[in-house]
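Most newcomers find our protein records easier to grasp once they have seen one. A record pairs a protein's sequence with a compact description of its fold. An example says more than a description, so a record of this kind follows:
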Amino acid sequence: MSEGLLQVGTEAPAWSAETSDGTRASLADFRGKQAVMLMFYPMDDTPGCTKQMCTARDEGTQYAAAGVARFGVNPGGVESHRGFADKYSLDFPLLVDDNSAIAAAYGVLREDGYTGRATYLIDRDGRIAYAAAGAHGADEVLEALHGG
């Protein structure tokens, strides 16, 4: 999967998806206004995924101060996402990745059909500022916005 990650500096693929709060969000909504972090994870309410999403929740003030909108992404449905978000008081939406199209576009769809764990930060201009397999904390991710 890591060989398939998009390169820093390249244009981020466009996406639009239903969210856990019942609205739609798209990358275009943020262009020129706000950076976007996409946190890809395999499944709702599993130990590793819960830790990843709760860390992003707990670091929310750092992301907010840097002007970064956060989204969890996997192919789970709205009800699954809503239940997961409510159970752990996640303060950001989870995107419903129908047919794993977003995961495929961002190079994180595994051969077994599951979404791999990866973190992307997209700057206000729509370019990839950070891309790494796995879950990563705010200090590391946000350094990319400051030319780190």
Notes: Residues 2-146 form a domain with the Glutaredoxin fold (CATH 3.40.30.10). The chain has five helices and seven strands. The longest strand covers residues 68-74.
